[in-house]
Design brief:
Helix content: 55-70%
Strand order of the largest sheet: 1-2
Distance between the termini: 13 Å
Number of strands: 4
Radius of gyration: 17 Å
Length: 199
């Protein structure tokens, strides 16, 4: 049961961790090209199963907590929640990708070249707030948070009982903890994948 819960929670990120959205530590970093940016955006938003699993997973949480109440329960309500989450995530990814491109920021998660679990965990948490610029220097990743907050606020235009202030802040704040959690999965993706294969 624990293993099933773990798989359901982290499967989207494990799937994305095998795509162009993560740079393995064995590969030397260099700035992405325009073509690579498009591929990363496509993989993160549309072309990878993880993009759809995250919408289904988030919608499952909404279904269990009955949010929004007006959509009620049942298959129809769940379908509406999946659609709402997918559109919101797509908008978030689009804003983040566009702003990152303009700023010249790294859109991938670059795995740590460090060794030791403690150092890698610290790096994963730190990189929830930082990214690399064109010169490879760590900078605050403001496009990520701009995408999260703006998508949360925009989602209130089609969910009447949501308030832009509450949902916008909630969506942006969720990036603080879920982003760090997902970074841990991205960082330890190879080990987690091997662990699932052995069981």
């Amino acid at each position: 049961m624990v293993r099933l819960f773990f798989a359901a929670l982290f499967l989207p990120t494990l799937l994305l961790a095998q795509s162009s959205t993560v740079l393995p530590k064995e590969i030397e970093w260099k700035p992405v090209t325009s073509e690579q940016r498009w591929q990363i955006y496509r993989d993160k938003t549309f072309a990878n199963p993880g993009a759809y699993f995250r919408a289904f997973g988030a919608a499952s949480g909404d279904q269990l907590s009955d949010r929004p109440v007006a959509w009620q329960q049942g298959l129809k309500g769940y379908g509406q929640r999946v659609g709402q989450r997918f559109v919101t995530f797509t908008l978030q990814d689009s804003v983040e990708a566009g702003l990152s491109s303009v700023a010249g920021y790294e859109p991938r998660y670059v795995r740590c070249k460090c060794t030791g679990a403690g150092a890698r965990i610290g790096y994963a948490f730190k990189m929830n707030f930082l990214t690399l610029n064109r010169e490879g220097k760590q900078v605050f990743n403001w496009p990520k948070f701009a995408g999260a907050y703006s998508a949360g606020m925009a989602s209130t235009t089609w969910v009447k009982e949501y308030k832009w202030s509450a949902q916008g802040l909630q969506a942006g704040n969720s990036q603080l903890y879920f982003g760090a959690l997902f970074n841990l999965v991205r960082e330890f993706g190879p080990e987690l994948k091997r662990g699932f294969k052995r069981k």
